[in-house]
Design a protein that fits this description.
Layout (H helix, E strand, L loop, with lengths): L3 E4 L9 H14 L6 H6 L5 H12 L6 H19 L6 H10 L3 E6 L3 H11 L7 E4 L11 H10 L6 E5 L2 H9 L3 E4 L16 E2 L5 H7 L5 H4 L4
Parallel strand pairs: 1-2, 1-4, 2-3, 4-5, 5-6
Helix pairs in contact: 1-4, 3-4, 4-6
């Protein structure tokens, strides 16, 4: 029985994935370090700490420090969220739908709590969530299951009774490792990629999760009960 839906954040509830790409390329370029959009996409869904450490190791960078780059990237992302952040299409209707149907709502994100706070403030949605978990609180980030397992504990629901909504392959691996059912919502340019077929369902918009219910048929959530 589905008792909860746990959302990833960047690219699922807010249009912030491009902000990360802009911030990473902008900050790295400022220090004369090569960073491309492809490199950013490669690490999509991963904690910023792990991203920066990875590129430092791969490229044998020592300066600027990991801490300096993390702080500047995060600051840039927060500014972009405050100035240009928008809810993903269908989010508010879906949150209302879940709340009205007594389905708990959780958040499991690789982003830091300071970024979560910026998103919740910008979209004014914190009241919908029964539990919020950041990989900042966990020993391992995605694709390890820790952040999803932590979110399930916070909302007091067995992971096997949860649906996770993810836009990244790394996030899907994390949710599946936690034993959850998964909905993939890749960005348009990646929707065709076969790697997202590991999800139980693949959608183009959050609206699809409840559209069938509005048509008087079974919702996607109910259709996943028997999986």
């Amino acid at each position: 029985m589905i008792e909860a839906v746990i959302f990833d954040m960047d690219g699922v509830i807010i249009n912030s994935e491009p902000f990360w790409v802009e911030a990473e390329i902008g900050v790295y370029t400022r220090y004369g370090l090569k960073m491309t959009e492809e490199m950013c996409v490669q690490m999509k869904g991963t904690r910023i700490e792990d991203v920066v450490k990875h590129w430092h190791s791969v490229n044998n960078w020592s300066e600027p420090s990991v801490e300096v780059l993390i702080n500047e990237i995060v600051e840039n992302v927060i500014v972009s969220i405050k100035e240009r952040g928008k809810a993903m299409p269908g989010l508010l209707g879906l949150l209302e739908y879940l709340q009205d149907n007594k389905i708990k709502i959780g958040l499991a994100t690789s982003s830091l709590y300071c970024i979560i706070d910026a998103v919740m403030d910008k979209l004014q949605i914190v009241g919908y969530f029964n539990g919020i978990n950041s990989a900042e609180s966990e020993k391992l980030g995605k694709p390890a299951p820790d952040v999803y397992l932590g979110a399930a504990r916070k909302i007091r629901v067995n992971p096997r009774n949860c649906i996770a909504v993810e836009d990244s392959y790394t996030g899907l691996l994390s949710a599946k490792a936690a034993g959850m059912l998964t909905i993939a919502m890749p960005e348009k340019s990646e929707y065709h990629l076969k790697k997202y077929n590991i999800a139980d369902l693949k959608i183009k918009s959050l609206k699809e999760i409840i559209d069938l219910d509005y048509q008087g048929k079974l919702s996607l959530i109910n259709s996943m009960q028997d999986k």
